[in-house]
Amino acid sequence: MAQGSVQVTHSGTSRWRRRTGEYSSLAAALEAAGDGDVLTVPAGTYRENLVLVRAVTLRGPDGARGSVRIAPADGVALTVRASATVHDLHLEATDSTSPALLVEDGAPELSGLRVVTRSASGIEVRGGARPTVRRCTVDNAGGVGISVLDGAGGVFEECEVMAAGQTGVAVRGGAHPRLENCRIHHASGAGLSVNGEGSAVEAVGCELYEIKGAGVQVAARATGHLTDCTVHRTSADGVTLDTDAVLTLADCDIHDIPENAVDLRSRSVLTLTRSTVRHFGRNGLSVWDPGTRVDANQCEIHDSTGDYPAVWVSDGATAVLDSTRMHDVPDALFVLDRGSRADVVDCDISQVRNTAVSVSDGATVQLDDCRIREAATGAWFRDHGSGGTLANCTIDGAQTGVIVTKGADPTIEGCTVSSPAEAGFYVSAEGRGTFQGCRVTGSSGFGFHVIDGCRTALTRCRTERCARGGYEFAEGGAGAGDGPTVQDCTSDESRAVQTPAAGAVTGPAVQQVTQTAGLLGNVPAQSPAPDTAAAAEPAVSSRPSDEVLGELDTLVGLESVKREVRSLINMIEVGRRRREAGLKAASVRRHLVFTGSPGTGKTTVARLYGEILASLAVLERGHLVEVSRVDLVGEHIGSTAIRTQEAFDRARGGVLFIDEAYALSPEDSGRDFGKEAIDTLVKLMEDHREAVVVIVAGYTAEMERFLAVNPGVASRFSRTITFGDYAPEELLRIVEQQGEEHEYRLAEGTGEGLLKYFTALPKGPSFGNGRTARQTFEAMVERHAGRVAQLTAPSTDDLSLLYPEDLPELP
């Protein structure tokens, strides 16, 4: 039943046909209307299902937008099958199987409509319809905001999807609408979804936000072109492409995305021009699968809020970045997997917390005329098959400029590394690489650091002002058949030293290096580094093994430890004698695990163990190098391998003692760099098994977990020695030893007082065993000094006797 009446003005071409009529229902008015007629509907609620089959105009009263409600009990509120005009109506529907507004044919003009519904779709356009929809709003908590289906088209101008229980705007079945200055927000599915071969969308000046799914989703051979659009505040990815999708984004802004800003898969192609990607939680650009490709030109990717690379290219995908800026991100570009490739031209990469460019698992990159600033690692070629070319690039202010490891083989041409904190170019673990015309200036470490006999080729390279030296070639270096080859390289830190008889001058010089017989013929001689292993570690006095074992025996307690060490030493000594006698000797792995609480003598025993092995000629020097996680793990990828290598080098000929080793493998490791230290250490232990003895130490439970989660580490240690906590009597004996060493004696009753004190002392995680005993002695000496200082003429006993009252209070 209509509220009021419907006024219809018949406006045909003949004057005599013009008339006005009033009808009791909208359906009756529409039945009577002809093409060109105007139906003005009075304010009210109409419970009718309207169908427009003629080119009429249907509108509400002037100045009363939204006062006419079309709200049937079920079905479609308004169906348009002609080139009609509809203005200023309020449509409501509740049928979950039908749309509220259905446009099936013609080129109607719809404006000022407000659709509030819980329908399958708020507005649905299908078939041959080509509507122009202006300034309409859709609030559909039950389904899709706007659906354009089955080859339909049309233009949507300044429309708004205020809420959608599913997708905001869905385009499929070969449909191809155009969206201009539209807003789509608060959708529970994708903001804009384009799906199916032949389906396409063109969007200009649109905004998509507060989306619980992806902002824009293009899939299954669909295409899209977005210009000057903004996608932000989604719950899933910002833009996704899948299965041969093609999308162009020009002058767009994608930001505040908790997942990937843009994700491409399955042969999809994205062209990104003059667009910005920022504030993303995972990857800015995530590119997967063979045939998938992204081309970014004059774009900016910055301000990651997560811990993932800004651009991720894997599984055979391709990325082309031209004149693009990446900054303020954890990592800039990761390319991995065979067949994956990135071509980067004239790009700026800066403020990178970890690695600017990482290449692994057989991937390839080509960087031309790029600038990398303030990155932890400029470029890292990680493993066998990974490579590519860096040409005419600059790397400034990095910890390490370029790292090449594990068989990677890039070509670096005409690149300059300025002011690296650790090394300009670092090659290790069988890395290769060809360096031509490269330059390192102002390094706080080495210019070129090549270790482990890596077959690296250097031609016409130059180093200047490198604190530790321009060139450092470790084992397999000068003259070695498997080391680097060097030709025409120079350094301003060279020292040409010749005999005075030859008329040479000793002093600073620039020395040229030429290739000899295809191998390293000559290297610019470096000034001795002030922190070489020999300078860093004091020489260890050579004592007979019996004398060192005697010192071990004097240690308080540790009876089981002493037995374990003696058993191991006996095995080593007998093995040595068997070999001298021409007999086979059992292989004894000398690396050890020390478990137990702090202060139980682990470091002291490790030092003595090294001396004993040196006395038996098992180790060259027997010195102890003590390190912990902070000494091995850097703040960025790449520096950890360097620090671990340097610690190992300092320990050559002796013992590398890693305290609290379990800290290298925390339970919530994530992307923790401790794993890099472990991997480096395991390889060094294997490659140089006779040069260094490694002892890892820590709490018993934590070390058990450490060995369990790192089987590669566990397999390299022969045995675990457990250091038990000291008993009160043993702690008393340590205090007595401290007193004898410092010429103090315990007065009568003081020993009993100490036993009671150590028995009552809490044995929690902070209990330091021998350290606690020594601290107790120091506290007694301080209290003794405060007491004796009050005496005018203290006697020798006054100055040396410690009384029960000198004991500190229990904590």
From TrEMBL:
Superkingdom classification of source: Bacteria
Domain AAA+ ATPase, chain residue ranges per copy: 588-727
Keyword match RNA-binding: no
Coiled-coil positions: none
Keyword terms, alphabetized: ATP-binding, Nucleotide-binding, Repeat
Annotated stretches, region: Disordered: 522-546
Biased composition (Low complexity): 524-543
The Carbohydrate-binding/sugar hydrolysis domain, residue ranges: 41-172, 313-474
Keyword Glycosyltransferase attributed: no
Entry's family note: Belongs to the CbxX/CfxQ family.
Official protein name in the record: Right-handed parallel beta-helix repeat-containing protein
Organism: Streptomyces decoyicus
Highest classification ranks of the organism: Bacteria, Bacillati, Actinomycetota, Actinomycetes, Kitasatosporales
